[in-house]
Amino acid sequence: ESSLKVTGVDFLKSQNTRQHHTDGYNIKNLVVRRGQPFQVQVSLNRELTAADKLSLRFGIGENPVKNRGSLLSLKPERENFNGWKISVIKKNGKECLLSVTSSPNAPVGKYNLNVKAGTNTYKPENGVIYLLFNPWCEDDVVYMADEAQKKEYVLNDTGYIYVGSSYSIYDRPWNYGQFEELILDACMFLLDKSKLSLSDRRDPANVSRAMSALVNANDDNGVLLGNWSGNYISGTSPMDWIGSVTILQQYYKTKKPVRYGQCWVFAGVLNTVMRCLGVPSRCVSTFEAAHDTEENLRVDVYLNEKGEKLNSLTFDSVWNFHVWNDVWMKRGDLPEGFNGWQTIDSTPQEQSQGRFQCGPCPVKAVREGDVYLPYDSKFVYAEVNADRVYWVVKKVNGKDKYFKVGTETQSIGKNISTKAVGQNRREDITREYKYPEGSKEERKSMERAYSFIRPSGMVPRSGYASISALSGNTQTVVPKEPVTKAGLQLEITNTEPLLPGNPLEMAITVKASTPGNWTVVLTGSCQLQYYTGKVQANLGTIKETIQLEGTSEMQIPLKIAPDAYMKTLSSVEDDVLILVTAIAEVKETNDKLTKETSMRFEYPPITVQMPETATLYNDFTCAFIFKNMLNVTLENCKLVVEGLGIFKMTTFDQGDIMPGRIMKSEITCTPTRLGEKKIVAKLISNQIKGISTEKAITIT
């Protein structure tokens, strides 16, 4: 008989990708998930006989070899090879239908497929197969049982990232776009760049740790360059991004870091990468997150005598919010009980094992206080559990002296938030990270954590502080919230909406809950600060002495004129928050109490007008309308819009929008994909950085 030759290979793409939940990927090649069968139809030059030898060869990496496991030669009669299986489903004349099941712990990446028939080798067109993690396969360590969760954490290509402050949380729509053109290739490029060994590529813990390092550019020419300087002239301001797609596409095309990112951009991009590779992933925002540089579970805040926070002395900081990611997996490298969500963080803050990478750290280890477990669990624990200690710096005989004016044990790591499964709302997941404040379990967990982290005694940690002034005891004590003898409480609120161009009207409420007459000296200050806690401008202070009798309260107004802050607001490139700090000193008892609250400005909305449904490849019009309801002209307005599967990210220059004026922009949209799609819009001006909105449309 003539020698056997392969004349064609059909990857049965539409059937395979539907079964593997990979039909969304915008790529010519076949994309499948590990541990699950897919079918391949092989066409031959003649019928197959019993004597014929046919094998499929899957190779991964530069020079695949059999003994290293990078070359798999699968023969239908030999069941198993490295956990892979192949079988003949049916022979029909010259056609042969094969089923291939990869191992549920196969290395993820790109495999080259060749078909060997007798002595002839056939290389199919588009013969590179992409193999991903499989949350639908019970034997894969990323297996996730709940269907709705998989739909959210693996397949949803849009979402929200929560920002602002714990006083005023708001959602920022974000397009993850893990199925868009070139995104999967960008992720494969990162996998190759990570230099992970083949066996390391089997384990999502190694892969997610490597990706947390590669999404920042710090030591490996990764995806994004971080910049918190306020000067973004040589790139894109972090505020201007509305999704990961443009960033990853640009990176893949240029192979150079994209400028610039801040924490929510890093988290948005890392979320895209992990979902793209098939690992369930969510963006997690923590409000009042401690960035503690010495693992001593304490953040020191320094105030001057007017109650204004000082940048210069502060080594560690509390960020109004910080965003990282949780990825879902079983941890075979850890003792029982630490499977499930694992924290990873690609914002470059601290080096871990010599690189800017963080995690995966089991969320359960943070909750239980098991901070000895890999990776970086002490760091993550401190971010959500540190104490905040306030010091007032006073000049005494020409020397700076530090006076402790308050300790807060419950103000760090609040309102830990992520997008709810299948709904456009915020879900509070604080309980997954910590037990209720003051509960028995919380005490136990803290004592456990403190046995692994040895905090220093109560000494201010500024480089200039004279230690001798305060001889703190250095034994490890789990601090408790201090209670003043007057039962004093402070509350900071805004009494009018905080609109740019209007006076900022706020109030500090002082409450006493113990019988007696109390003289309280109240110092209050108002500042503008970045979300990283860095102060940008001092706006004003008040100092008043008030009398409280027994159980009573008094509200002291704090009002800032527009002139005091508008210039700063227009000159900064970031979204800034209004920080109010209050110090109360009770004359009779010498008790001191400190409280701070960060608030965000409120903005008029953008309205999106478009039909609720549209049909594939048929144009529709989408209009963006914005009315400037503020008392101030918005200068250099830019409207940034993007709709996945509808149109690429587009920027419209709108010039200046005067008070009362209405802006309207229209874009013609051509839907190229079915299902529910979202259009995201963001308006940026000199005065305002963060007005965004989104609207859904169903494509039939």
From TrEMBL:
One example GO MF annotation: metal ion binding
Active-site residues, Swiss-Prot/TrEMBL: C263, H322, D345
Query: Which cofactors go with this protein?
Result: Ca(2+)
What positions does the domain Transglutaminase-like occupy?
255-348
| Superkingdom to which the source organism belongs | Eukaryota
Q: What class of enzyme is it?
A: transferase
The note on cofactor binding and number reads: Binds 1 Ca(2+) ion per subunit.
Q: Which reaction does it catalyse?
A: L-glutaminyl-[protein] + L-lysyl-[protein] = [protein]-L-lysyl-N(6)-5-L-glutamyl-[protein] + NH4(+)
Annotated family = Belongs to the transglutaminase superfamily. Transglutaminase family.
State the protein's name: Protein-glutamine gamma-glutamyltransferase 4
Task: Tell me the organism.
Answer: Pomatostomus ruficeps (Chestnut-crowned babbler)
